[in-house]
Design a protein that fits this description.
The structure is a single chain. 12% of the residues lie in helices and 42% in strands. It is mainly β and 99 residues long. The chain has one domain: SH3 type barrels (Roll), CATH 2.30.30.240. The radius of gyration is 13 Å and the shape is globular. The mean pLDDT is 79.
Length: 99
């Protein structure tokens, strides 16, 4: 199911959480596919002290394919990200970097 966004400006600086309730960071940028008029991915700035910040180490952010976005409203909800082998409903950070 596609998640629709009425105004792209509303996506910026929204807090991002996983579907398991873990805080990830904030939306800092959006990558568009202009040939299809769709959002391709979002760039999340990892907050210090969050589990994503620990996974990424010294990196400041992560590009997340828009297919992993589950909801957009006051916050953005994405599928849970893990550093190792993912369980059901989870995606590893390595999988995201290769997509």
């Amino acid at each position: 199911m596609a998640i629709t966004v009425k105004n792209l400006n509303e996506m910026f600086n929204k807090d991002v959480f996983t579907n398991k309730g873990s805080y990830v960071g904030r939306v800092k940028d959006i990558e568009l596919d202009l040939s299809r008029f769709r959002i391709r991915s979002i760039v999340i700035e990892a907050a210090r002290g969050t589990f994503l910040g620990q996974i990424l180490g010294g990196k400041k952010g992560l590009i997340v394919p828009y297919q992993l976005v589950q909801a957009v409203d006051d916050i953005v909800i994405i599928k849970h990200i893990t550093a190792a082998v993912p369980g059901e409903g989870e995606v590893s950070a390595q999988q995201i970097e290769t997509e």
